[in-house]
Amino acid sequence: SRTGAEAAPSIPEGAATGTPADGGVLRIARPPASQAETLDPADSLSAYEYLGALYNRLVRMDEDGEAVPDLATEWEPDDEGSTWTFRLRDGVEFHDGTRFTSADAAYTLRRILDPDLASPQATVLSPLLSPEGVHTPEPGVLRVELDAPNFEFPALLSNYHCYVVPDGSGDSIGETGIGTGPFRLEDFSPGGRGRVVAYDGHWEGRPVLDAIEMFAMTDIQARTNALLAGQVDLLSQTNLDFATARVVAASGNATIARSVNAQWYVLPMLTTAEPFTDSRVRRAMKLAYDPVHLLEVALQGTGVVGEDNPVPPDTPYWTDHTLERDPDRARALLSEAGHDGLQVDLYTSTYDPVFTPMALAYRDSVADAGIDVRVRNASADSYYTQVWMQQPLMATYWYTGRPADQLLNQIFRTGSSYNETAWSDPDFDDLLDSARGTADEDRRRRLYQEAQRLVVEEGGAMTPMFADRLVGLSREVLNYRESGFEFDYLNIGLRP
Amino acid sequence: MNTESNDNTGSTDPLVRVENLSVAYTSEGHDVPVVRGVSFEVETGRTLAVVGESGSGKSTVAATLLAHLRHGSRITSGRVELAGQDLFGLDRAGVRRLRAHDVALVGQNAGHSLTPSMRVGAQIEESLLPQRLPRRERRAQVLTLAEKVGLPDPERLLRRHPHQLSGGQQQRVAIAMALAARPRVLVLDEPTTALDVVTQARILDLVAGLSRELGLTSILVSHDLGVVSRMADEVLVMRDGAVVEQGRAQQVLTAPEHPYTRLLLASVPRLEDRGLAEVDQDGTRTVRPRTPVPEDAPDAVSLRDVTVDHGSTRAVDGVTLRLRRGEVLALVGESGSGKSTLAWSLAGLHAPSGGHMLLHGGTEGDLAATARRRPLDVRRRVQLVFQNADTSLNPRRIVREAVRRPLRFFGGRSRRDADRDARTLLSDVALDPDLSGRLPGQLSGGQRQRVGIARALAGDPQVVVADEVTTALDVSVQASVLALLERLREERDLAFVFISHDLAVVRGIADRVAVLRHGRVVEEGPVEAVFSGPNHPYTRSLIDAVLDPSDPSDTGGHGPARSQRPPDPPSDTGDDPVWHDLGGGHRIRRWETGPETARDT
Amino acid sequence: MLLYTCRRLASAVLTVLLSAVLVFAAVQLLPGDVATQVLGQDATPEAVAALRDQMDLNRPAVVRFLEWIAGAARGDFGLSPVSGEPVADTLWPHLRNTMLIAVSTVAVAVTASVVLGVVAGLYRDRWPDTIISTLTLIGMSVPEFVMATLLVLLLSITVPVLPAVVLDEATAPVADLLPAVVLPTIALSVVMTAYIVRMTRTSVIDVMAGEFVTTARLKGISTPRVVVRHALPSALLPTLNVIAMNVAWLVGGVAVVENVFNYPGIGQLMLESVHNRDLPVLQAIAVISALVYVLCNLAADLGAMALNPRLRTGGGSRR
Amino acid sequence: MSELERGNPSTPSRARAQHPVGRTVRTLLRSRTACVGLGLVVLHLAVAALAPLLTSASPTANAPDEALLGPSGEHWLGTDALGRDVLTRVVYGGQYALTVSFAATTCAVALGTVLGCATALKGGRLDGALMRVLDAVLAIPPILALLVVVTVLGAGPAVIVLAVTLVYTPQVVRVVRAAALGVVPLDYVTAARARGERTLPILLREVLPNIVHVVAVEFAMRASWVVLLISSLSFLGFGADPPTPDWGLMISENRTAMVVLPWATLAPIIALATLVVGLNLSADGLSRLWNVDRTEEAS
Ligand SMILES: Nc1ncnc2c1ncn2[C@@H]1O[C@H](COP(=O)(O)OP(=O)(O)OP(=O)(O)O)[C@@H](O)[C@H]1O
Ligand SMILES: Nc1ncnc2c1ncn2[C@@H]1O[C@H](COP(=O)(O)OP(=O)(O)OP(=O)(O)O)[C@@H](O)[C@H]1O
Ligand SMILES: [Mg+2]
Ligand SMILES: [Mg+2]
């Protein structure tokens, strides 16, 4: 049949690679954050582009989801997995010239654990660790004594909240952005524009680019226009919809780079709000829809189905457990729960161009099960303050690139600040705890898979699909690579 | 300015010649003729008057002399010539030259024809531009012209804007503007219609004097036969776009041949008529003497020391008057003298600020309250008829509804009864009851005025206040409406307060006259006594300014204005410090003897 | 005359005050408050309560309003709870930027529309009028955002001569913003011109049919002189109000266009503040807009005085 | 003595009394502008009302296989990113625009007319106070008022009607008041006052019938603004909820893809523009027919 994708010029698979010109300025358009935007990694919610450029972590994730060295060169646990020793890189300097030592790493960790700061990462780390457990036996060694055994601990430090900041910089780091990263901060205004310039003293060597400029733009269309008009080179934090991606790919200035499975889309049901307090209703909502339809309508196939499991299919702990679509069963479940002809509002916004198509496709898909979904458009600017975690049903997405343990703990554990479905299941929490403490790799995997099974069966999140992020970038940009929340800042450059 | 006088003696060819001129405008694809086959000639130095009823095409003809046609109309046949040149054959430049040098127009309403945003001096100066004079000379000329048209204190006045001048002054500026071009032909389209009688007389004097002095050829458009008899050498009578009669003014005005002209002439009220004139179809007029109001007729309304204020201006100032049943009391006076204000207070639209106003007779009541506060029965006893027939009827309501509403409102009648009564009322005012389904827009002015009267009668009033009810009507229609009022008065024993500035009309219809000036009564008395004098000087100036088409001293044009008879000092019979009482109810307010302060016109 | 001006001024001040009250009252109704907005996703009830206290949100609205208006009179609009900075510091640059568009739009639109309107009026029902009237009709019928989108497509993407969006911040120097002003100006001018042209045309036709213009023509003076000296002053009189209304509309109503161009103007700020529940900023915008509105009307009145001696000299039949 | 029967050229007198409706229709037919304008509006109304008959496709069903197609025999104007037929959506699109705009305009004009007439007739203090308040409302930028109302009450057709009413009523009041002030001093109103009639009957019998034409023109013109305003709201994301086929929404959904799929954007633009043109032409034609001075209505 004539599919849209066939009728269109196909969308390029990856970014162009090659030897870039020395220097150059990369201009990035990004969605504006609030005026409260900060460069403090422990606290930051939106400044990903800055963080990756300015800081380093102890450990980072490679493209296969494995933890690899960054500022820590090697690490090892004791036998129970409750004491971890990190060997730190020598000869690393912060942008202000001070030397990086274990004191900085310890300060960073303790800060995250500080309840006054209320770092989002604290909910992940504080069950394992207290500030007293962080030790600095020598400048080049960091020892961490966990409260409970955890064999996944290094992976948890790869989160973007765990970027290392200089010892004692807590009050000013939000504005100064002093780190050990390949770029140093020149200019930054919260929610507005900013500029970072190459840091010659970076331990991995100087980056190719001279500078990166960031511009904030509310409207996706404005961002796209800026790209098409050659005013910017890259659209960050922006997944273009298929139609727009085609326009960009067809233009002379710009093209598209696919970042495979870079984000997953969710329709979170708030388990504390009617009618989703009833797990039968949640199950029915999941049984009623066909993720393939959503993938086709909303992404034109540029992704893979999610099967309500947020752990990406190609990562180590993934389970293939699925719920078969069954509208009749869904209808029966609803009837059982006393919700015949269920009518729900599904909130969406133009914050991301895929939200609305996904919502509409979901609406279409569940009509068979007698569920009447009304799609409600909310304002993009206040979407994450007025709708997310407030409305019983809405559309949202997450970036992949989190280790499974971090993901499951952060988004599904009872009481976690990112638990968008407000789901609380002690069995699930217990499973995670035992998985963390299990030294045996296989057993650990099974436990994590068991936890995922619970998420699929009982949880509030419908995860219809993982999407390739369709990133708009100038044809001048070379070596664009993105994983998780950061680019390959060292090698990205402009065509000579 | 002497080339014209050469023409005057040298050639006998007519300066203006109009031949078989027809003008039409297109409406909904049809040609509607406005002027049909008009021909005339005017010789140099002569004045031709074009008369006729409203809409007969007078202005259209006059404008063709400036090669001007109203938007949408065109010439269907004939030609207009000035000194042998076809005006409608001229190119644009030719037309401009014609207007700049040969023909000038003085319009009806100077208030509208002067540009509001320009100083009047500049506007006069503009007409001098085509003569390419140096600036200083032009200024001097303007000043001369201003003096010539009799603008007081010209230096100062010329720097004013039009709205800062009085109507008379505006008209003088318009005349100066016309004269500035040093035209050969002057077209005057109703130059005095918008002015009060006294000012009208002065302007006409001015025009006559200037025409004679400059040897101008004039075309004067007017529907006022008095003005025509005063100014014209020749007269052209138009009706429905065609000429019905033309000839020497004296002859047409005294011995008209065409019945229409006779009718027109006969319908003009005259100052010497001692009653209303009745005019037959063939134009014979008989004056029906007024039946005098019986001495013992009871009072209908009495006013004592009534004052009315508009904010801080005192419009009516201590008026004491009395109106008896079956009597017509006329209020006369110049514009702004407070006539309408007094009438409105009587009708309950504006509460007086002092004095007493009482209604006598079957229903007694205090009239010093506004309509809504008056008892219904008092309210209905005083009714108002309006001046402007166009605005006095709701254009969206048919005639029957207009009359039915007060019937139902005052009488509480059922709709059927009210409908029946409305038809009766309409035939009472001599209207075909079949017209009752029409909208006011589909009626003629006279018919509309009759509906207005019928509406007033619907309340079954005792007193009718008629504010300039015939001013906007053509003479023939005016005569019929006046006759109607007279008949109603007799049949229904109505008392009328009749407001008019046309003294001839007043003389015909009124029993008594009160002359107002600046809100005060300056003279009051039976109509005969007031018109025969002696008078207050103000009354005298009003009476003297009246022009009469049949007055031999007026015909032949160019005569000097009637000499202002000096006011006879009335024989002092009383010892009232304010009033001279001349007996028979005729009294005159005492005035300061000495030179009357010249009024600024 | 002086009395008139004084009364006019007093009523202007009253109008501004009244609008401030209205806006304040309306804004109080906004659901969710700035405290939750600032704390965002991690808001705990205690934190919100603390912040509300710190931000003074717990005192009676009337008191807050009075204090605020007293400050506003001195040009001090208080602190923005969202950014923590003085409102005035954010407001002025945005206002300046919008004024940049507004002034150029007014300049372009007024000149163009008066010329076009006069031409259309003079050539009534002939081809210049037909063309102008058709164009204005189209101008009026296409929403600004469509116009803006088409302009970007045409002049920024297909033929990249002008920037499609503004990358600069509100505080950028004027010179940097100038290229970005062009497209919004065109988009807005088209709409505004359409309205003014029609008014001017109608009014020119009316005036040209008037008696004094006919009289002037019959005086034999040239047509340009008739138009400029006699007709225009009166014809522009009703147009003045339209222009004033349009200018006032520009200041508040450019939100959509600013949105398309990412232009850091008052409209952008307004949208943002509504979303952030940044009440002080909203109130400041409303009062400033009301002030501009009132000033525009005052200016129109003064312009009318200049054009109409009847008003200037106060005499005549005005009651 | 005969009075000449003279027909007024603008309302030719006919022997037969005419029904006012018949007369109005005949007057309308005389103006080509009004005919074209009203024709366009009626056409839009008809298309919106008959949409289900005109097209069998669903305006909301997603068909991923058919997404982003160019014009073809099956889809005359192609399909959008979700595979919906553009023509179908445009045809249905009028329903939302017309219903909401007409409801909003009707509310604003009705309320404005009542207030405008009443204040003109009453005059005095009431008039002064009301005009002051309305002036204050007018001084607030409409878009701000709209945003506040929509944020307070949430976007929905009823809210939009309310918001538009709030924003436009003052302007209608100004226009109607000015028109009524032209009628109030006329003699027939004076006559009614002299009879001592109450305000309401005067308003209904004498004033309103003489300004209906102003109101009608105001309605047409206001409607054109409201249509544009509502589409702007949809554009900003405060209008119809997806998948409602609404022109403003369609434009904002598809404008990104304008280069590859021009029709998905152009078709709703054209639909919107023709409706507005129709309303404008109607307002124009009517005002010319009825000699309504539109200079007052620029606000
Ligand atoms: N272009 C036109 N369009 C419509 N009607 C016209 C036009 N030109 C003339 N008329 C009509 O032609 C008739 C003659 O008009 P004209 O002004 O010449 O009359 P008039 O005798 O001067 O009347 P009045 O005494 O009222 O000034 C009137 O009924 C007028 O309405
Ligand atoms: N509504 C008003 N407000 C203020 N002053 C007014 C008002 N109506 C009339 N006047 C003033 O009151 C005075 C008398 O006016 P009025 O209308 O009674 O005169 P009139 O004799 O009827 O004049 P005309 O012959 O022009 O009709 C005038 O000076 C006028 O300016
Ligand atoms: Mg005439
Ligand atoms: Mg009067």
UniProtKB/TrEMBL annotation, chain B:
Belongs to the ABC transporter superfamily. GO terms for molecular function: ATP binding. Keywords: ATP-binding, Nucleotide-binding, Transport. Pfam families: ABC_tran (PF00005), oligo_HPY (PF08352). Residues 547-601 are annotated as: Disordered. This is ABC transporter ATP-binding protein. PROSITE patterns: ABC_TRANSPORTER_1 (PS00211), ABC_TRANSPORTER_2 (PS50893). PANTHER family: D,D-DIPEPTIDE TRANSPORT ATP-BINDING PROTEIN DDPF-RELATED, TRANSPORT ATP-BINDING PROTEIN. Signal peptide: none annotated. Residues 16-265, 301-543 form the ABC transporter domain. InterPro entries: AAA+_ATPase, ABC_transp_ATP-bind, ABC_transporter-like_ATP-bd, ABC_transporter-like_CS, Oligopep_ABC_C, P-loop_NTPase. The lineage of its organism: Bacteria, Bacillati, Actinomycetota, Actinomycetes, Streptosporangiales. It comes from Nocardiopsis coralli. Residues 590-601 have a biased composition (Basic and acidic residues). SUPFAM superfamilies: P-loop containing nucleoside triphosphate hydrolases.
Automatic annotation (TrEMBL), chain C:
The keyword Transport applies. Its main location: membrane. InterPro entries: BPD_transp_1_N (IPR045621), MetI-like (IPR000515), MetI-like_sf (IPR035906). The chain crosses the membrane at residues 99-123, 135-157, 177-197, 235-261, 281-300. Keywords: Cell membrane, Membrane, Signal, Transmembrane, Transmembrane helix, Transport. Residues 95-300 form the ABC transmembrane type-1 domain. It is a multi-pass membrane protein. This is ABC transporter permease. It comes from Nocardiopsis coralli.
TrEMBL record, chain D:
CDD domains: TM_PBP2. The lineage of its organism: Bacteria, Bacillati, Actinomycetota, Actinomycetes, Streptosporangiales. It comes from the Bacteria. InterPro entries: BP-dependent_transpt_permease, MetI-like, MetI-like_sf, OppC_N. Keywords: Cell membrane, Membrane, Transmembrane, Transmembrane helix, Transport. The chain crosses the membrane at residues 33-54, 96-121, 133-166, 211-240, 260-281. It is found in: Cell membrane. Belongs to the binding-protein-dependent transport system permease family. This is ABC transporter permease. SUPFAM superfamilies: MetI-like (SSF161098). It comes from Nocardiopsis coralli. Residues 94-278 form the ABC transmembrane type-1 domain. It is a multi-pass membrane protein. Residues 1-21 are annotated as: Disordered.
